[in-house]
Specification:
It is built from 4 helices and 6 strands, in the order H-E-E-E-H-E-E-H-E-H. It is α/β, with parallel strands linked by helices. The chain has one domain. Strands 1-2-3-4-5-6 form a 6-stranded mixed β-sheet, covered by helices on one side. Strand 2 and strand 3 form a beta hairpin.
């Protein structure tokens, strides 16, 4: 007899970057950002953000950097350059791929994987299966890096949205409301 709780139908296989990106995008939308994009490249920077959320009026920009494995994290040397373009920055990775002590105090970590032990015990006791949405949790929330994005970074972000929409490269989808 096996004593485990399957996390998803595909538990045990390597988590694809696309799956983590979709979870990050969903989480960003739930936070209420007015503009959310995947694989976003600000004008003239040469950088590419995996998931970015931009608020309409407050100049808040949240970036999620997706890491599919520990090796992916260790090979990446460019993520620190992203900090100039955001007010909040977090990694989204499988549980155990990144250790909290490897990151700066203000950098967040959102893990995909096994939920807290107590939650697993409760679910097992009632014969429940934990679904994928329950498995994305912030083990360390990101702290505010700055009050607002600097002017040059803000202009690069807005140029990409405006010019990309005109050329049809960026799919604009603003949610209703004032944003954050």
């Amino acid at each position: 007899m096996l004593d485990y709780i399957p996390l998803t139908a595909t538990a045990g296989r390597r988590i694809a970057t696309a799956e983590l990106r979709a979870l990050g995008t969903q989480r960003m939308n739930e936070l209420g950002y007015a503009y959310v994009a995947n694989e976003f490249t600000p004008a003239g920077t040469g950088l590419r953000f995996d998931v970015v959320g931009i608020a309409k009026y407050t100049r808040q920009v949240r970036i999620y950097e997706i890491k599919s494995s520990r090796g992916d994290f260790l090979c990446d040397q460019k993520w620190e350059r992203y900090l100039d373009y955001c007010t909040h920055f977090s990694f989204v990775a499988p549980a155990g791929a990144i250790f909290r002590w490897e990151l700066g105090r203000d950098v967040g970590l959102i893990e995909y994987g096994a939920p807290a032990f107590e939650r697993m015990r409760r679910a097992r006791r009632f014969g429940m299966t934990i679904v994928r949405e329950d498995c994305l949790r912030a083990t360390r929330p990101s702290r505010r890096l700055r009050d607002r994005v600097p002017d040059d970074a803000w202009i690069a972000l807005l140029e990409t949205i405006a010019l990309g929409a005109r050329s049809g490269l960026v799919d604009i989808e603003f949610e209703g409301g004032a944003g954050i």
